[in-house]
Amino acid sequence: MWQPTSPGEEPAQPAPHGHARTLSMKQKNPGRWFGQVVKLKKDRVDEYKACHAKVWPEVLKQIKDCGIEDYNIFYDDGLGLLFASFRYIGYDYAGDMEKMAGNPKVREWWKMTDSMQESLVEGAVSSEAGTPSWWRPMEQVFFQP
Amino acid sequence: MWQPTSPGEEPAQPAPHGHARTLSMKQKNPGRWFGQVVKLKKDRVDEYKACHAKVWPEVLKQIKDCGIEDYNIFYDDGLGLLFASFRYIGYDYAGDMEKMAGNPKVREWWKMTDSMQESLVEGAVSSEAGTPSWWRPMEQVFFQP
Is the confidence metric ipTM above 0.90 for this complex? Predict the structure, then answer.
């Protein structure tokens, strides 16, 4: 489901340890952004939109609990493509993704949404399989906070 | 350069007025997300990446001053496409975009980057022209903060 932008690069560094002495000193992990692309089957567009308008609460909670925020999925009808981007604010991406895949409700969700999509990654089997990733990772070429 | 996800819909509402009584009560405008797509010419990929690794400071400042943050551009080499997403935290998008286009350095930047791209929007002339938009707006089908 994911891949570092530059292979081998570590996720964003944790904020300094210890209690912040004032509120203004509190630092939040700025996180690391991921971008991904996948094809959406033309005859499943309405269905995909409908289920994403009310994603199962267990799935939303698992995403949050795995340190993922500002999770956007955009759709371009002309291209028939879905683009996702999100910020990972945790400190153990691989571990968090294992937790994600360990949730039966998430796996059920993936099975449903995979059926509406076609991966752009050669050899990709499913979201559950993990490798190679069902969504194709994109390269971050610009970022301004 | 932009278009509301749902035409006619207003930008995110301002935070409540008046001084927050404690720091923890301070509310930030959560903003509104935009997603856009454009084609990158195959023979200009390296050049595009290089200039985005050091965007002119005047351009970065103008983006910030126009209430845009978390501005990502992702590239997919297989598709030859660029995907941008950003959060608009201001209260007058049209006005801010006018300010943006009023900056000569921004217009110079657009002229340069337009030359590396092909718009997916029929009839699009340039980023400077504004309408129809050079980058094609995408539809936000999912968001979790």
Answer: no
